[in-house]
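Worked example 3 (structure in, sequence out).
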């Protein structure tokens, strides 16, 4: 399965996939960026937990 990037208009991005893969590698290799991402995911999870019911 090949991942496809689709814009908000429903059409695939032209020529952006290679850029996206390079950006992904760069961000994953940066310790600070990974720590910030984990922090943002935790904040989002906490926010969702405030407005949902368990179970």
């Amino acid at each position: 399965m090949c991942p496809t990037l689709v814009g908000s208009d429903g059409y695939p991005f032209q020529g952006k996939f290679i850029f996206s893969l390079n950006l992904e590698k760069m961000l994953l290799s940066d310790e600070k960026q990974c720590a910030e991402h984990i922090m943002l995911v935790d904040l989002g999870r906490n926010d969702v937990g405030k407005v949902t019911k368990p179970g």
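Notes: Helices lie at 17-28, 31-51. The chain has two helices and no strands.
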